[in-house]
Amino acid sequence: MSGEESETPTKAKSRRKTSGKGSRSDGRSGYGSKDDDPEGEFEDTPDSEQADDAQQTIGELEDEVAAEVDEGGVEVEGVEDEGSAAGGAPGGTGGGAVTGEGGQSGVSATDEADTGDGDIVIGSEMEEWEPGETVPDDDLQEAFQRAREESQQEVTAQPDADLETRIENGEKPSITPENLDEWQEYDPNLEIDESFFEEDLTPDAPDNLNIDNIDEFRPLDFEEENTGVSVDSMFVGEINGQRVFLTVDSVRSPGYPGQGVKLAEAVEESIEDDADGPEVKFPPMHFDEERSTSVLGDVAKVDTDRDDLEAKAAFAARSDADFPNLDREEYMTGLSTKLVIGDTDVGANVMQRSDGECYPIDFDLAGNDLDDKGGKERDAFEKALTRSTEPSAPFDISREELERHTQKVADQINREKLEERLEEKEVRAKTAENVKKNVRKLQEREEFE
Question: What confidence tens digit (pLDDT) does each residue in 23-70 have?
Fold first, then answer.
């Protein structure tokens, strides 16, 4: 990717501009500035429970436009509802007769149509039909779609425009050393700073997760539709052609991204080599102490040399013909792994790969006590199933079944080794104790409150 590279969306999508620069303590130190009580629990917010549902995607907007075309017809300048104009029923079931201004036959190259997504200029695409001919709904929609794309291409081809104009016109410029000042002026809360472009700042980091090896960054909402509540702190970069996902640990990122990665690493490193049970998987992960940023690798590339694999949120993969049917045990293992480390924020955070494998991601809210209901009636297992309603409902997963599966995942962990790893990684005392308690109670089959 380059700083001038852009994508042409169906609908221009602008990042939200904010004001009031936050703090990452000294910009490097991590999570100390999150709250006044460093041992306090991070309680999931209502926003985090409904983050995925609250994100209206471009695809949904396209569906709305298409629905308006199907149900209400398309009003072309000088033309009434396409259904009635063709002598058919309102709603477009009879197609649309193409007539010009003042009732004259034919559609000129400057006629406009309003599909609910703004005025769209219809050019030569309409000339393939004879004047007065009834235009099939599907063909009419295709013409509007092509015209919309042409219109967007004309608007976004402004490489000399300022950053704000380019973003508002649908471009998605990367954050580079050359335009960092402009980005910071555009978004005063931008979490990327000069340290992200320093060389050899973290020489001991894994090469495939080392921010030193990233030349440019893109806001996550430029790349993904299901972004959740941490979107303003999340970015995407590339290392050797592979995507990596970054979450800056700041006052604006819910939870403790750094602590979450350390907890996940400690659990992964504590699993017995000869463990008997569901295969526990984690993405490549690393916490950059210098930049106070967690880095996760693309799960589509974990333990494989295949370039054709993709990954998406499990609930979305269920309806995608390019993905196999979601395996019940694979999915429950992803849920259970999140629960072992005290993280009920599942939602879109169990990823399915196109070869069928599942991986948990996003450990920002890890480290909670599974006994702590946060003043609510649902326990952790019920909460996890509630947040994963779409994918779990077809499996009819019960609370008891999920708890039993989580016990099987926990059975594979060596508790002594876990304690050692938590100390080595300097995980906060409270969150470390919570995870150790979760594992102990699961292994000893104690009931959760």
Answer: 343 433 333 345 444 444 444 444 444 444 433 444 454 455 455 545
With CA atoms as reference, report the closest residue to 335 among 361, 367, 306, 371: 361
CB atoms within 10 A of CB 178: 11
Where do the structural domains in the chain lie, given as residue ranges?
A: 46-55+203-443, 65-156
**Helix, strand or coil for residue 24?**
coil
Query: In the 8-state DSSP scheme, what is residue 37?
Result: -
Query: SS3 of 115, please?
Result: coil
DSSP run (H or E) holding 368: none
In sequence order, which residues have a C-beta less than 8 Å from that of residue 309 and are 6 or more positions away? 300, 301, 353, 354, 355
Which H or E element spans position 218? strand 218-219
Two tokens, residue 52 = 């995925």
Helix, strand, coil in percent for the chain, rounding step 5: 40, 10, 50
The token pair at 182 is 């402009």
- Distance between CA atoms of residues 365 and 379, nearest Å: 16
d(CA 350, CA 62): 26
